[in-house]
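Deliverable D4.2, example record:
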Amino acid sequence: MIDPVVDSDSHGSVAASAASAPAPRPVKPFRGWMQALLWPFAVVLPLVAIGVELGTRICAETLFDPLPTPLHVVLVVVVPLANLAALLLLRRASSPWPPSARTWRLVRFANGLALGVALYYALVFAPLVPISVLAIVAYGLGLLSLSPLLAVISGLGLWRAMQTRAPVRSRAVAWGLLASFLVLLGIAVPPLVTHFALRRFVEGNVEQRTAAVKLLRALGNRELLLRSCYVHRGELADLGSVLLGAHNISPEVAREVYYRVTGDPFNSVPPPRLPHDGMRLEERWDFEQGGTVVGAVLKEVSLTGSRLDGSLDADAALGYLEWTLELRNDTGIGREARAVLALPPGGVVTRATLWIDGSEQEAVFGSRGATRAAYESVVRASRDPLLVTTAGVDHVLVQCFPVPAGGTMKVRLGITTPLLVESAGRARLMLPHFVERNFTVPPELRHSVWVDAEDGLAVLDQEPDASAAQVALVSERSAAASTVRGALDDRALARRSIVAERRPEVRTTWANDPREPAFDVVASLEPVAARRVGRVAVVLDGSRALADEAAGLRQVLVEAPGAQTRTIVLAGDEVAEIRAEDVKKGRFAGGTDNVAALVRAWDEVASDPDAMVVWVHGPQPVVIGRADELAQRCARRPAGPRLVTLAAEPGPNRVLDELDGCGWVTVAARRGPPGEDLRALLAGGAPSGAALEPRLRRVAAGSEREGAEKTSVHLVKLWARGEAARLAGAADARSGGGAASDVAVRYGLVTPWSGAVVLETQQQYEQAGLMPDAPDDVPTIPEPSTVVLLVVVATLLLIVAARRRASQRAALRESMSPWRGAAF
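Output generated by the structure prediction step:
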């Protein structure tokens, strides 16, 4: 046997290498008493605190929300899970199968991440530490708010234990701390920027307020902005709002900021989760109750039923609609429901009904001040009133209180409206719709629409790309009438119109005045004279609502004659005159002040009696500028220039609310894309889009009936509305306003000078100085039960008549039987 030859130099080098390599560090066993302390404070208590907060929202309900987003939840859940992984790792460290170096690095990284998150929440809850210590003794709940601090101490203990027991050195803990810092910074910056900018908006000058809005558009937290619109002064939202002083900002200011940042009314989007959404939901007070502001959306009040019934007389260019709404309240206290409705152009509310204890109660019409005073007094007494008043041009505010706790309330509005006669053989009906409301409309709810007319009806869509779900109306024709019926979602209701065929030869209709039978109201359809268009100023709302319409508007403004578009004013963050070529999508963002631009444009053309200001705008939920400057111009220059408003999107318009009753303000009908409607206005077309317009006159009864078609007394209602407006525009403002109110009340109209209210008892009417009057014999839309009853009664009468005729014929045959026998 030959011994192997070993190179002495090689042997020496191997030995030297083995001697120089670092020996693995000895791993010490993890002490049992340390595990006994760490398990409850590092794992169990954080899990219990997270579960209690997610299940009860106790901290969010009383102080601030520590878990406002899903990312916050994920981060806090990492803390007990990382501590659990560290404890299991330390237990395996001294076992025969120790963990790998990669496992050590991963768990230590998680330990650093958990330490950073726990340290952040320990700082957030630091002001509560003294109270929490006392709460441990008193209630035992203080441990929950102390859990972040205890998690920091436990995390440091685990870090120390892994530092001394890890077989190799690693910087994984430092990387974990850095990762937690970056993530927390990323989610903390938008709320902090939001609170800082809100404070700057309140305290700064005009330039600083504009800069704050731009900062919020770029980096602000819009969910936090929306919550600020609902949370009232002094209610804490989070720690950042307290540190930066933003918790004392009023919701009115927050609502203005939300509009200027997003371009949307705050109550046009679903309400956010609020600090008091859980245990104390029923204790939250509706601060706008009984007032004239729609205000915040009450998630617990919802629309559960909506039906729109209508009857058209296209020959008379006349229609009547009844909109029945049913509301439900899912809380334990009564709530007020408020909504602003857009009426068809020129429409007027002529009937209001409230169901009380299952029976219909008709509204009483009175002066605007008297009806509101009566409503507010009864609201304070928690009774059952309904109030309907105007809220701008062709808009009404509907208020009803209380929607009973856990119950429903049902109301109905009757709307008399002219039709837009676009040609001798065609008239159009625009459907009423919600502008804003303080109750929710479930996505699955559909408005049931049923409109009848003697002539053919067709459905027109203002959006050619509307989905089949939105265009859910069908047109039917029978021997008796033509019908359009179906169901529309809430968005589609504002974008649909119905066209009715009419007899072109019918140009004159009449109806007798039920209040003064010695008079008739005669309507003569006359061609709309093309009004000379002098200087034109086009005011473009610089808010986001017009961004998608920029291309169409630019094309129309570029093609229009230069003399007609001499001035184009953009109401952006700063008011500026621009060229038609500069109308681009990038110029429209957020929500902007339009009052200053309107004043500037009106003053620009005020010297021309034929001048016109065309205002193309989106929703205006807040008045940012001084609307009284426009109101003053209306009072001092009642002849104009005209202001024609064209809404690109439906929504509230507080500027028009301030101009309610102004004679030179006209709301243009939205019949198609805003660009095409603007083109028609610049060409001198009527704002309504009508080719024929009725001229209403009151004459002696019977004097002009020959050759005219008789129609319903709704024609008299429209005449009375025009007469009230004429009287209100009289030179003597005091006598004009009183006379306008008298006419509106006498004929049962809701106008800027009158309202409609339903009270519960006769005594309440007497205390308010309102006397129920005998209703006019105005045709209404019958209830389905009434229709069924009429059909049954008619059927029974036919059966009785048939049997009577049969018995008479039998008696006649019996009397003639002897002669019949002889004859044959």
